[in-house]
Every structure is written in structure tokens, then in C-alpha cells.
Amino acid sequence: MIFSTYFEFLMNGGRFAVPLHPIKVWHMIVLKFGGTSMGTAQRIRDVSLLVQRKESCIVTLSAMAGVTDKLIACIKCFRNGDRIKGDEILQVIRSEFEHTAFELFHEQATLESMVAFFETTFSNISFHLHTGISDETANWTIVQGEMITSVIFTEYLLSIGIRAKLLNAPDFMRLNNLGEADLQAITELLMPNINPADHGLYITQGFVCRNHRGEIDNLKRGGSDYSATLIGAALKAKMIEIWTDIDGMQNNDPREVEETFAVRQLSFDEAAELAYFGAKILHPACVWPAQQFNIPIWLRNTMHPDNNGTLILEGGTRNDITAIAAKDRITAIRIKSGRMLNTYGFLVSLFKVFEDFQTPIDMITTSEVSVSLTIDNNTRLDEIVRELMKLGTVEIDRDQTIICVVGDFLIDKYGHVARILHSLQSIPIRMISYGGSQNNISLLVARQDKKQALNKLNSGLFQLSNLPEYAYS
């Protein structure tokens, strides 16, 4: 089902479709394919069919499945002094790429060219690893999976007669001095290389970038999604399609809950909340660039391309619960102090501790004499606790889970909060955060209660025998 058909369905036949604000559209589509989508020669052949469009496209690729993890393991071996094991892992990676190439290419000249490419590339990687593992070397090594995969895919397209141009992400993807994506620099560097009018097909790497010092760097785990939406924002694209091996955003965690369904449509805000609080299909940062320019994001399944997937766009009010996500490895901190009573400035001192130790806060609730909050990064917990003890008594609860219920809760005229709490009446709840966002109610439970809580919410909030119109099984 092509986008225009699906869009018509949403606008005319989908009962929960919402109006779009006007979008300044170029005839340009950004397509992102994850590691599973590029995991074998056959998958690469399948993707080559999906990228053939009438519109001009830029394709953003992850490394072939498993390659980045192997490169990280390889780096760890070299850092620990186990060069033999590191070389063995590197040889496994090379063999996987060579095996894929021999399945894809049949002309002798092309095969010889690819073998020479592998020889040069892996000799270069080996040289850098044996020379010494600095942070710069590690960052350069980690992204080689994307660099190699993009070359293989581009060469395959050319070998079957499809005109394609490889754009190397380090030439235009940039981070600023705070380690954040620099969209202005990305736009200025990318635009001269793109001509939307020529109906061209461009291939590039996700995840890969340069930092403000000009060194090869990356957008962290799952950063290929972020690359795609940054590119889409830079080009003011018509659509960003993110292709994975899942049929869109699920209404609950399918690893913990048996009866889940894919949500056909989400607002940008709902998708951002779900991604941040544990939905693995999206990188938490990737919604923002598309939202700034109102560019729809379509989550699609490479293995089932005719499925509807999930469309993320600027949404209106549905007055309903959409989906549930969960975030593990949460630490809850309670600070109790009589100094809070009828005083001001206490919270400033409290927040400054977390600012000083560069640790974000997820949830926070307050009473007259105490504050409870959560963090998901324990790297500097001991230092944080020492500083907080200067403000009052401190209690720590580890191994907690934030459960995030996403939907439209503005003023809650429809009793959603009551339904949520009723569903969890037998589950001990450590914290509740409600009112900070019209799209999110967050609840903190012990990790051991996560599975039961998700299942009770699923049965209590979604009548699976009578699915909402915006969902499909």
C-alpha cells in the first residue's frame, strides 16, 4: 500500500484520522533500513525493490545485523590485551561481508573489486586496532559496519542497473560542542549534494557523524533512526519511512504481553513519549527533527511491506489511551527534609546536584517535606547521594521500572486515570506522575511486578475482543 493510498484511508475511511497542518513538501522521501532489514543477501535484494520509487529518495542504512555488536566486542578484546581473540572476531565480520558479497554479485570483475575493497578496509581496521585503542580509534572502528554495508548496497544497485549515488555521512552529519546534532550544519553540508528534481536515489549511512573536532563519531545506539529524521528535516522531506522487522508501534511490550496489536496512528508527542519510555522500535531523539517541520514518519515492516505499519504525524484529540511502554533499570531516590516546609530555593539546590553530575531526572513528585525522583543512569549515584545527604535524609530503591501509559489525557474527562489505577489495584505503586504532559501518565513499580502490571493494564485498558478502530491485529 503506497503512502498516498494509506493517507487517503486515514483521512476518509479511518475513524480516528486527524487533520494535518499544511506541510511544505518536497518530492523527496527518506528511507531508513535497520540491521535486520540488511542482514542477508536476500534481505538486501528485497530492500533493493523497496527503494525503487517515483520520487527522489535518500536511503539511510544501518550496519548488517550483529556487525556493530561484534565490532564493540572486538574493541573490548584489544583494550583488554587479547589481540588474538580480537583478530578472530574481525575475521568473522569480514567473512560475513564476503559471504554476502559472493551471494549478491556474479560478475567476476565486480567480485574482484569487492574482494579488494574488503582487503583494504579490514587491513586498515586491523592496523588501527593494533596501533592502540584511543576513543577516536574506537569511534572510527564502531561505524565501519555502516560504511561497508552502504558500499555493498550501492554496488548491488548499480550491478542490477539502478542508478544510485553514495553519500558518505561523515561529509555532512555533524555534532556541536555539546555532543548534539547540529541541524543547521547538516542542512548546509547536505543540500548541495541533493537534487530532488532529478528523481535520483542516494545511499548513505545512519549512526555515523563527525563531532565538533572533526573526528568520526556516532549518534549512539539506535542512532540510524535519528540520522534519518535529521536528514528528513534538513531536506524538508515529504515523508520519512523507518523500516524494521516489526509491524509498527505495538500498544504494549510484546516480549511481556501476549495479546498486543500495532497502533495505526500516533501523534508526534505520543510517539516521543513511547520511544523515551522504552518502545524499542524508535530512537528516543528521532521524533523531534520531523516534528519541527511536520514531516510524517511511517514505521513499516521490511518482511511484510504491504502491512499498514504506524503513521506518526501531527495529531488532534482522540480522547483515548493509545499504548503502553516500560523502562527498566530505574533508581528511585527520596529526599526528606524539614527545610522544605514553607521555604523556597530548596528544589533549586536539589536540581543543581543532578546538573553538577550531568544526570537527567525522569520522574519527580513532591510533598510538604520530601521529594521523590527517578534516574536511569547510576554512573554517579554515589556522588549524588553524598551531596543530597547535605540537604536531608536519602533513601534509595534500585531495580525499579517506569510504566508509561500514553494517550490523550487533557483534563481527563473520560476517566482514563481511574481505569489505569483500577487495573493496577493489586500492584504496589511506588510513584505516580500525572499532569506534566497531556500525553503521558507514568507509574513506578518494582521490576519484579513489571510483567504482571503490563498484562493487567493490557486487559484493563484494551478490550482485545473489540479493538479500537485505530488498531489492527
Task: List the SSEs and their pairings.
Elements: H1 3-13, E1 28-33, H2 41-50, E2 56-61, H3 67-79, H4 83-104, H5 108-131, H6 135-142, H7 144-159, E3 165-166, H8 183-190, E4 201-205, E5 208-210, E6 216-218, H9 223-235, E7 239-244, E8 262-263, E9 265-267, H10 268-276, H11 287-292, E10 297-301, E11 310-313, E12 321-336, H12 346-356, E13 364-366, E14 370-375, H13 381-388, E15 393-407, H14 416-423, E16 431-434, E17 440-446, H15 450-461, E18 471-472
Helix pairs in contact: 3-4, 4-5, 5-7, 8-9, 14-15
What does this structure look like?
This protein is an alpha/beta fold and 473 residues long. It folds into two domains: 24-316, Acetylglutamate kinase-like (Carbamate kinase); 322-465, VC0802-like, CATH 3.30.2130. 38% of the residues lie in helices and 21% in strands. The chain is built from 15 helices and 18 strands. It has helices at 3-13, 41-50, 67-79, 83-104, 108-131, 135-142, 144-159, 183-190, 223-235, 268-276, 287-292, 346-356, 381-388, 416-423, 450-461; strands at 28-33, 56-61, 165-166, 201-205, 208-210, 216-218, 239-244, 262-263, 265-267, 297-301, 310-313, 321-336, 364-366, 370-375, 393-407, 431-434, 440-446, 471-472. The strands form four sheets. The protein has an eight-stranded mixed β-sheet, with helices on both faces. A six-stranded antiparallel β-sheet has the order 13-14-12-15-17-16, with helices on both faces. A hairpin with a 5-residue loop joins strand 5 and strand 6 (216-218). The longest helix is centred in the first third of the chain and has 24 residues, at 108-131. The protein is globular and about 75 Å long. 44% of the residues are buried.
